[in-house]
What we know:
This protein is an alpha+beta fold and about 210 residues long. Helix content is about 35%, strand content about 20%.
Amino acid sequence: MPIEQQPPLDALVAACHWIGTKGWCPATGGNMSVRLSGQHCLITESGHDKGSISAEHFLTVNLQSGEVDGGRIPSAETGLHTLVYSLFPTVGAILHTHSVNATVLSRVEKSNAVILEGYEMQKSLGGQRSHLDRVIIPIFDNSQDIPALASRVADSHATVPLQYGFLVRGHGLYCWGRDVKEARRHLEGLEFLFQCELQLRLLEAK
Ligand SMILES: [Zn+2]
């Protein structure tokens, strides 16, 4: 069935399996969500391999309270998902991965952003029309205190608006789209661009 016609949870489960085959969420890391309405999203339950996850491993979270139905445990980083949904009413899906490229690039880059410029593949990101434009992907220092991290992300967004995603240093990428299909395209595009950026820096350092 074309992804546009799939129910949101089916599309998200398929995205998780695809991410698993890519190796972007090793050892049960990462978390994925899809918006159900203005009030709720579905998010991965903690501790499941994304490559073999199924529909019963998703929890319904209230976007305002962060509470989960049935007392089950959501992913530790649920607060970052609910933040992004509250900042962007048009966001329909969020993918958070722990890839090698996102992890390494966010450590190699010492400033507070990766700036992507000069790549044709920037056009994989919604609204980008030219390799001559600059795409800013902010980097936030990692923290186990998710409310504090979410507050830093929100403060930064107030001055430099987030667009497609952000990196958490030494940790991974959060990216999103208006639906699962667009979030997947943004994830694949950003992963490609991160790999280019790492290879370029390696060659330039020689
Ligand atoms: Zn994570």
